[in-house]
């Protein structure tokens, strides 16, 4: 289970990393059911990335895989080609979504958007580490 207290700690760690790299981000945390627990839009972060961060968090939980790994497998000829069109377009295949695990079981997800894929992943990993 991902509590609000957990989400706040995850977001705080991700915000700290985003500030360190100088890139304002949108950071979302979902619970085991893919429901939004908390979201932060840092000052200056793109408003278009709000939706993307939430959907990255949802996608990482819905499929229990990082969105970066899902992106790799969703290219033409890949086993998940076309998956982005499923779930009414809710699936995000950009780096920055990571499942959150407790005792080896996926219990939620973090989604980060607002920078390059590498930046989004770096910030999401910082949040994951705080969980």
From TrEMBL:
Q: Which Pfam families match?
A: HbpS-like
What organism is recorded for this protein?
Answer: Lusitaniella coriacea LEGE 07157
Q: What is this protein called?
A: Heme-binding protein
Xref: Gene3D superfamilies: Haem-degrading domain
Its transmembrane ranges are none
SUPFAM superfamilies named in the record: GlcG-like (SSF143744)
Domain of life, source organism: Bacteria
Q: Quote the InterPro entries the UniProt record gives.
A: GlcG_carb_metab_protein, PduO/GlcC-like, PduO/GlcC-like_sf
């Amino acid at each position: 289970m991902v509590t609000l207290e957990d989400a706040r700690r995850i977001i705080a760690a991700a915000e700290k990393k985003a500030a360190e790299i100088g890139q304002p981000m949108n950071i979302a945390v979902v619970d085991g059911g893919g429901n939004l627990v908390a979201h932060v839009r840092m000052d200056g972060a793109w408003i278009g990335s709000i939706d993307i961060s939430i959907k990255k968090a949802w996608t990482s939980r819905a499929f229990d895989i990082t969105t970066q790994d899902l992106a790799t497998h969703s290219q033409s000829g890949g086993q998940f080609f076309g998956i982005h069109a499923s779930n009414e377009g809710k699936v995000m295949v950009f780096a920055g979504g990571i499942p959150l695990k407790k005792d080896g079981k996926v219990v939620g997800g973090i989604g980060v958007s607002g920078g390059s894929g590498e930046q989004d992943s770096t910030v999401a990993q910082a949040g994951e580490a705080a969980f």
